[in-house]
Amino acid sequence: MSKALNGVRILDFTHVQSGPTCTQLLAWLGADVIKVERPGEGDATRGQLRDIPGADSLYFTMLNHNKRSVTINTKKPEGKGVLDDLIRHCDVLVENFAPGALDRMGYTWEHINELNPRMIVASVKGFGPGPYEDCKVYENVAQCAGGSASTTGFDDGPPMVTGAQIGDSGTGLHLALGIVAALFQRTSSGRGQKVLAPMQDAVLNLCRVKLRDQQRLERTHTMHEYPQYPDGKFGEAVPRAGNASGGGQPGAILKCKGWETDPNAYIYFITQAAVWPAVCKVIGEEGWITDDAYATPQARLLHLKPIFRRIEEWTMTKTKFEAMDILNKYDIPCGPILSMKEIAEEPALRATGTIVEVDHPVRGKYLTVGNPIKLSDSATEVTRSPLLGEHTEDVLGQLGYSSEAIAKLRAAGAV
Ligand code: COA
């Protein structure tokens, strides 16, 4: 079967998480992704958080599927020669080095553009132009600077980072979209361009509802769906909202049977207005259907805490899965709090290829997250991550280097 990005060649100069997420997605969509790594060391994540001595870590393997690995020392003149050839050969260069690193290596936009005017140069940086543009950035810094940490957690606790890697993987997703758009524009312009996805901007994009709320707060000085309403005080900035739903339909995380010993025996319960009578029937509070204090969404906002306490009395009598079965019959929106163990064992996610078992020559079998984006005419087959420099000969051969030339480059420590 052909793939959406068949024929697109990516020079993958990325490392750690944000850039590799982007190029992995492009590989799953069919691009030929050539990962360039430093000889002997490679991407630092190969050795980070190792669970099997001598084997590439899960951190690395789970972010670098379907790629080829080439080692090049791009600080040696002979290495630069190979990189020049790769730039001429490829359509897109993706990188997420610290600000200025690519320029220091000698690969300014002007130089790359001279070598290949059709090349798209795509970068992740921590910040866009401004006071912090020269800073190195990791995931949690982006979550803090992008508005996520100040709006996550409980009102009486400190700012909190989320487990979802919105700074790294979230920015990688944004960058992938920018690259695909630039490739499309190139079909008519004939030119490459620069694509930049700053991590702060990507996190802010994912937090846009909080900027919405900031403006609502400034205008009305209160927000009725936040847990601070009606008793607490609002300050000048959007407060942390705990597990409130954040939308027009109030929601909460409620305990289920077994919560005393199982840290994930909880359910997310949404009191969607359309199914309020069903919610009342399920929990045995039919009187609330017509009681003026509960009958309308507006009236209920004044009593959300006692309402959720009463619903929790009911959820605590059921396991999260029993509660799901009952609530789904009434179309009441809800979701079990699934542990990673439960997700890893979920047959439906295996069936759709979102959880995949991959075999690796050094580490053996492991689980990974496959392509979450499903195209009906471009199926994804997840293949293992490459060993360091596994494809150096292949790729250099493709660029026209003879075995003798490759041996010379090796002797010079350039590949
Ligand atoms: N051959 C020779 N040198 C190479 C090389 C190769 N194949 N690949 C990389 N290098 C060099 C770079 O040129 C750079 O050298 P320099 O500092 O002398 O200019 C050096 O390796 C280190 O690169 P750098 O990006 O600074 O790595 P770091 O480990 O110090 O920093 C980050 C890591 C992630 C903090 C930084 O890269 C960064 O801020 N990136 C942008 C934001 C980002 O993506 N963050 C999220 C990461 S998940």
What does this protein look like?
This protein is α/β, with parallel strands linked by helices and 415 residues long. Helices cover 36% and strands 13% of the residues. It has 17 helices and eleven strands. Helix 1 links the parallel strand 1 and strand 2. Helix 1 crosses helix 7 and helix 6 packs across helix 8. Bound molecules: coenzyme A. The site of coenzyme A has 24 residues, from helix 1, strand 2, helix 4 and strand 5.
Helix count from the secondary structure assignment: 17
Number of strands: 11
Order of helices and strands: EHEHEHEHHEHHEHHEEHHHHEHHEEHH
Largest sheet: 6 strands, parallel
Put the structure in a nutshell.
By secondary structure, the chain is α/β, with parallel strands linked by helices. The chain has 17 helices and 11 strands. It is 36% helix and 13% strand.
Which tags fit this structure?
415 residues; alpha/beta; 6-stranded parallel β-sheet; 3-stranded antiparallel β-sheet; 11 strands; binds coenzyme A
